[in-house]
Structures are given as structure tokens and as C-alpha cells.
Specification:
This protein is α+β, with helices and mostly antiparallel strands. It has a single domain, classed as Orthogonal Bundle (Cytochrome p450). The protein is built from 16 helices and twelve strands.
Length: about 425
């Protein structure tokens, strides 16, 4: 491809991400402008793109200087009223963020998620027994989409009859700039009537309605599930309001479903493109733990998150002004050669303990609460695939989502040979 020059880089352009991950762009930025001013079309004001691993860690670990609450976590510049109506727990700084996290966190520790492993394995085994008989299928539709939403539904307490619909709805919300998926694209005037709705989407209301019915039911009859814990919790400041419950229900459904789905799909794509790495797993299944972590690093399911500077600060020799948008690019940090030797190589022998990725965030109060669950899902899927599949290859061209936020695949046609 043509040499990437700084004057041609625009990370706000969703089309940049359609044909494939723009790693050449990130490579250029890390070397030439690791703290890069990315202009945007008016009325948006532009943002600082942070692309080096260590700078990303610095930003995420300092919520006092780099706030999630001040302007939200997306590139969108919301009014104070819009942000107030739509704010979810990702868009809170300490100590307010902790009011939500401490209710949820005990259910998502490594020990806590471990109790779901047997149930999860049974789910994946049943899924693979049904899918693999065809030998050729769309990995996204057959495995990567249905498995995470069913896991999330089981843990949250969402009945099975809602799962397929939630896949459709969450696709529309998180891929809000892909006209093939979104009911209205969030960067168009058509979304203005929904500016107070989660993800600026008309489809959020349907997810809210599902959640609202479940809230009422769990207040009457609590169970051992996340919805019951939330609606009956009394954290500091009193019980959650109905608005807080609704917005965060939408956030958990979308985030918990889509990120694991993208990790699975992009990870399997990496194996299709690197068959020697699949053979390594067949020969050395003890590498599966490292392989699951490498899939997530290599995939980077979420491209970026935004913070807002609360004061003038210097980062990477560049002065960032109070009020500026500061955007950390996980897909770049996870390919930073100063942290990951031969960073563009998909390598299932890479030891996670020495090369910790930043796909779930890295340090700080907003480290992904579902990280251990997502890693467990990927690991168990790999274990069961390796036990059954001798080889996996592309059966067609993958199709990517038009988004600079979600690193998603619409389709991943694959062909397998069984062991």
C-alpha cells in the first residue's frame, strides 16, 4: 500500500476500518506522532489519538486527569443534558463508578466465573455438535454470535426467548455507523430525535422494555442472577434509580455480547490466516491458555475509548489542554513492538504473564469487569474446537463492520476438517 503520511490520517473516518484493521496507520502514528491531533468535521472539535502502549496505560490509570465522566467515553460530543440522560457506569469516575462496580465485581472474579465453566462447556459442546456436521458455515452466525449472548443471558437472568432478538438489537446499537446494521446511523441527522436514548438509537427502547419487565419480576421474586442483585442492591447513595437500571442493562447487554463475539470471530480468522498456529495447538494443547489470551490481544475487540482532560497536561512531549478529547487506541497499543516483540505476528506461544495486552483496558478503575468471563469463553471454545477440528480455513471473504469503535465481523465463512 502507499506510504501512510500524517496529513492523510483520519481515525474518525469509519471507512478506514472496513477493508481491514488499519495497522499501517497505527504503526506510523506510534513512531511519528504517538500523541496525534486528529481533526474532525465540524461541529466536532477533534481529539488526541494515543497509540503507544505505555501512554494508553498512563491515561487509563489516571482518572483524575483523564475523566470518563466529564464527556463520556465515545467520540460523540454530547450536551450536558444528553450525557445526563444517557450516562452509564462506564461514564463515571471514582468514587461514583465504584457504586456500580462493587455490586457487580464479586460475580466476575476468576473464582466466581469459574463456577459457570461446566455449564458453559455444555453449551459450547451442544453448539459445536450441531454446527460442525455441516463442515462449512458462517462462524459469526453459527458460533460467535449465539454463544456469548446465551452466556450473558444465563448470568444476568435473561430468558432464552429474548436472546436471538438481543443479538439483532445489540448489533444495531454498537454498530451505529454501519448503514447495513443500524436503523439510523448515529452520525446522521436522522438520529437527532433519539439523542437522549442509549447509543443514540431508536432500538434501545426495545432492550429497555425487556429489562424493565425483568426488573419488576426480580423485585417480586429475586434469584441468583445479576439482574436480581442490581434491582435489590442498596449501595452507597441508596438503591439504583429506574433510569440507572435501564441504561446499564442496555450497556451490559451490548458490551458483554459484542466484545466476546468479536474476540472469538477475529481470533478464528487469525487461525485461518495462520494455520501453523492451529497445528501448534493440535500438537501442544497445553498452549490453549496462552492462545486464548493471544486471540484477544490480536483481535482487540474494541478499537478505542475516549477520556476528557480535566487540566492542562503533557503526554509524550505534547501539551493537552483542559477539555480536550483524549482517545486511547487499544488496537494500536496491542501491536506496540516496545511491549510485544514481533507484535504483528499471531503467536500462541506468547506468554501472557510477560506480554499483558490492553484489550480490556489496562489498570485503572475501568478495567473491564467481564474480562475473566470473556477469556473463559474463548478458552473453552478453543479447547472444544481443538478436540474436534483438524483444520479450519476460509470458505469466503470475511466482511467487516463499518466502525472505528467495534472491531467486528459481519460474516466469517469457514470450512473445517474434523479430527
Amino acid at each position: 500500500m502507499d506510504r501512510v503520511t500524517l496529513d492523510r490520517i483520519d481515525l474518525s473516518n469509519h471507512d478506514l476500518f472496513v477493508d481491514g484493521p488499519p495497522h499501517a496507520v497505527f504503526d506510523t502514528l506510534r513512531v511519528e506522532a504517538p500523541v496525534f491531533w486528529n481533526a474532525e468535521r465540524p461541529p466536532r472539535k477533534g481529539f488526541w489519538a494515543i497509540t503507544r502502549y505505555q501512554d494508553i496505560v498512563t491515561v487509563l490509570g489516571d482518572p483524575t486527569t483523564f475523566s470518563s465522566e466529564l464527556g463520556g467515553v465515545t467520540l460523540e460530543e454530547q450536551s450536558a443534558e444528553e450525557l445526563g440522560e444517557r450516562r452509564n457506569f462506564l461514564e463515571l469516575d471514582p468514587p461514583r463508578h465504584g457504586r456500580f462496580r462493587k455490586v457487580l465485581a464479586p460475580d466476575f472474579t476468576p473464582k466466581a466465573v469459574g463456577r459457570w465453566e461446566a455449564w458453559l462447556r455444555d453449551l459450547i459442546v451442544r453448539n459445536l455438535d450441531e454446527v460442525l456436521v455441516t463442515r462449512e458455515f458462517d462462524f459469526v452466525e453459527a458460533i460467535a454470535a449465539p454463544v456469548p449472548i446465551r452466556v450473558l443471558g444465563h448470568i444476568m437472568g435473561v430468558p432464552d426467548e429474548h436472546h436471538d432478538r438481543l443479538i439483532v438489537l445489540s448489533d444495531r446499537l454498537i454498530n451505529s455507523n454501519d448503514p447495513e446494521l443500524a436503523t439510523v446511523t448515529s452520525d446522521s441527522a436522522d438520529s437527532d430525535p433519539y439523542r437522549f436514548e442509549p447509543f443514540r438509537s431508536p432500538d434501545a427502547a426495545e432492550i429497555v422494555a425487556i429489562g424493565r419487565a425483568l426488573f419488576d419480576e426480580r423485585r417480586r421474586e429475586p434469584r441468583e442472577d445479576v439482574i436480581s442483585y442490581l434491582v435489590n442492591a442498596s449501595p452507597d447513595g441508596g438503591a439504583y434509580t429506574q433510569q440507572e437500571l435501564e441504561i446499564n442493562f442496555v450497556t451490559m447487554v451490548v458490551a458483554g455480547n459484542e466484545t466476546t463475539r468479536s474476540a472469538m470471530a477475529n481470533g478464528i480468522l487469525a487461525f485461518c490466516e495462520n494455520p501453523d498456529q492451529w497445528q501448534l495447538l493440535l500438537d501442544q494443547p497445553e498452549l490453549i491458555n496462552a492462545a486464548a489470551d493471544e486471540m484477544i490481544r490480536y483481535a482487540s475487540p474494541v478499537w478505542h475509548f475516549r477520556r476528557t482532560a480535566t487540566r492542562d497536561v503533557t503526554l509524550g512531549g505534547v501539551t493537552i489542554r483542559e477539555g480536550d478529547k483524549v482517545v486511547v487506541w487499544f488496537g494500536s497499543g496491542n501491536r506496540d513492538p516496545s511491549r510485544f516483540p514481533d507484535a504483528h505476528r499471531f503467536d500462541v506461544t506468547r506468554p501472557p504473564s510477560k506480554h499483558t495486552h490492553c484489550a480490556f483496558g489496562r489498570g485503572g478503575p475501568h478495567y473491564c469487569i467481564g474480562a475473566h468471563l470473556a477469556t473463559l469463553e474463548v478458552r473453552v471454545l478453543l479447547e472444544e474446537l481443538v478436540a474436534r477440528v483438524q483444520s479450519i480455513e476460509l470458505a469466503g471473504e470475511p466482511r467487516r463492520v463499518r466502525s472505528n469503535f467495534a472491531n467486528g465481523l459481519k460474516t466469517l465463512p469457514v470450512r473445517v476438517a474434523l479430527r
